Amino acid sequence: MMIVDLFIHPTSWFILGALLMPFAKRFGIQQIWLIVIPLVAMATIYRLPDSFGIVNYLGFELQFGRVDSLTFIFLHVFTLMALIGCIFGLRVKETGQHIAAFLYVAGSLGVTLAGDYLTLFIFWELMAFASTFLIWYRKKKRSIEAGYRYLLVHTAGGLILLAGIFLLYQTGHDLSFGILSQEGAGWAEYLIMIGFLLNAAAPPIHAWLPDAYPEATVTGAVFMCAFTTKTAVYVLMRGFPGFEILAIIGACMALYGVAYAVIENDARRILAYHVVSQVGYMVCGVGIGTAMALNGVAAHAYAHIIYKALLFMGAGAVLEMTGRSKLSELGGLYRTMPLTMIFTIIGGIAISGFPLTSGFVSKSMIVAAAGYNHQPVLLVMLLLAGVGTFLSVGIKLPYFIWFGKDSGIRVKEAPWNMQLAMAMAAFICILFGVYPAALYSMLPYAAEYQPYYAYHLSETFQLFGFTGLGFYLMVKYLKPHDVTNLDLDWFYRKGSVRFISFAKGPIVAANEWVSNVYQKIGLRMTMALARAFSWFDKEGIDWTIDGSARNIVEGGNSVRQIQTGRIQHYIAAGVIAVLVVLVVVLFI
Amino acid sequence: MIARWIEYLRERANIVRGCFFAFLLFAVIFDFLIERPKPHFFGDTIIGFWSLFGFLGCLLMIVICKGLSHVWLERKEDPYDDR
């Protein structure tokens, strides 16, 4: 591949940007660098050829670039989001955090453009690895722990995906990444689907998301809420449209996320649960699988990335200025942070799907597709999730941060770059609401949809009006308390502790019993045996044993030196081992 | 400026509340007047269905979720912080 070809690919720009970031910092142009790279990457996506970067490596045909209208809309929103995120984090001094964010975006763009499973897998792992640092850079004990859990869960998900890829190769000897069919789907397809669904945060494998995102850095959370789950939605759209199971999983996700958002206290945790809920709409749309549903998924992914980032920016700005994110510790901030309030409320009404916002024109497409496809149960579940969305993010979140009981906090408004980023996102939310053609013109499939008609408006007015009435009547009951709610991460957080205490109890007891038996019976036998061997030993093979004993001691020493106890070394060793296994399995 | 405007509205909470109830009334009346497309399920044929759906959905969600949280899921401090 020529060097010129290399820079057709937008990922190359983000990787170059990440590599040169320390030098940009050294010459004092880090802030310019943070703006230029996303802009250049954005320019490249308009000039991508349909297919490029085909490399033959070890007998595999890797395709780094496969472009069609579905790729384009995701590339468009990902690069735009990278720009908004960089503006939001412009004043973050730590170069490492920017490098992590750039590599994360690079991974996401790489997955979007990947034409085969191996390329996809490489960038998939890059995303997981880079985003972990966005959590660790918060540098609190909770964040370090949450980051390790995040990395472990994603490594497990990556291995499941890799297992599916191996099985797929075994049956078809073809690794190109295209539409899989529901008929005849077996272990390979479903393992790949589970790998994808883990990143889409589908219950019961979703708990990593509300565990990790609230612990990430302020800027890190803004990036993370946009890329991991939506890349997963993209690959599901590419591989699994029309798989009925996804429609059911998606509708359940939509309600599950909302239910937790109603009871949670931490602002960023509420928003994290709403990622689960909103991605549920998209997974459901993928499962419905009609042209209109898939268009709805693409439109909703675009709209969702922008308004969810806006909400995370609003909550992040409050956290940055006040140092708090729990609703029970906030309140009355409208006095000093009114602009952040307005932007966040725009995000809140957009996610709820108010008329004249992006959510109204995108979410309703998926809901309508469920209706047209004669799936009223899905339709009702999605609309109920919409009620919960408006209740928790449209009203509860802004009410308890900016109004409610005055917390007495008086801080300055967020800095200009954060406000600029929020204003850009808020503008896009409104733009798509009043001029849906701007969004619809990018949609990949041919399907006519007009969001503004009387019945849809009437339905929306009633749903929101009476949800508001419900909130008004129940506001005392909804008052946030300083509590955390258990979720399914209990199984690997508390469950592992239980396992260890089980190990300390019954297993240790059993072990002691066995060793007692051994001491009483086994030891005597061993002694007798030893005497016999001792006799044999003395009889003439002393010299052989002496030689090998010395060798064993030396060998033991060198093995001991390999065990450094550093997790990085183990990760590196693991990666090398996986590569070796890969090579052995595929070529021998 | 924005803060002062909000203070102004907060001092006139009755008017704001009045506007809100007027909107609810409007939403129901509006549902009588509009043309209904081909229904997707029975709810689409009932006038005011979505008002009831929104209101009951909201109340049920609060009661069920808060109830579940209260009796089962909620923990005062970080439930995992016991090492």
Chart the SSEs and their pairings.
The complex is a heterodimer of chains A (588) and B (83).
Chain A: H1 3-6, H2 10-26, H3 30-44, E1 51-57, E2 60-66, H4 69-88, H5 95-113, H6 117-136, H7 141-172, H8 187-199, H9 208-212, H10 218-239, H11 244-263, H12 267-288, H13 291-322, H14 338-352, H15 358-372, H16 376-402, H17 416-434, H18 437-440, H19 454-474, E3 484-485, H20 490-538, H21 542-562, H22 567-587
Antiparallel strand pairs in A: 1-2
Chain B: H1 2-11, H2 13-33, H3 49-73, E1 74-75
- Uncertain runs of chain A: none
Annotation field: number of helices of chain B: 3
Q: What does the largest sheet of chain A look like?
A: 2 strands, antiparallel
Quaternary assembly: heterodimer
- Report the span from N to C terminus of chain A: 28 Å
The count of β-strands of chain A is 3
Based on secondary structure, the structural category of chain A is: mainly alpha
**Largest sheet of chain B at a glance?**
none
Instruction: Supply the number of structural domains of chain B.
Output: 1
Strand order of the largest sheet of chain A: 1-2
Q: What is the percent of helical residues of chain B? A: 55-70%
Separation, N- and C-terminal Cα atoms of chain B: 50 Å
Please work out how many helical segments of chain A DSSP would assign.
Answer: 22
Roughly how many Å is the radius of gyration of chain A?
Answer: 27 Å
Largest interface: A-B, 56 and 45 residues
Helix content of chain A: over 70%
Can you put this structure into words, describing what you see?
The complex is a heterodimer of chains A (588) and B (83). Chain A is an all-alpha fold and 588 residues long. Chain A has 2 domains: 1-238, no CATH class; 241-474, no CATH class. In chain A, 74% of the residues lie in helices and 3% in strands. Chain A is built from 22 helices and 3 strands. Chain A has helices at residues 3-6, 10-26, 30-44, 69-88, 95-113, 117-136, 141-172, 187-199, 208-212, 218-239, 244-263, 267-288, 291-322, 338-352, 358-372, 376-402, 416-434, 437-440, 454-474, 490-538, 542-562, 567-587; strands spanning 51-57, 60-66, 484-485. The two termini of chain A are 28 Å apart. Chain B has one domain. In chain B, 67% of the residues lie in helices and 2% in strands. Chain B has 3 helices and 1 strand. Chain B has helices at 2-11, 13-33, 49-73; one strand at 74-75. Classes of the chains: A mainly alpha (588), B mainly alpha (83).
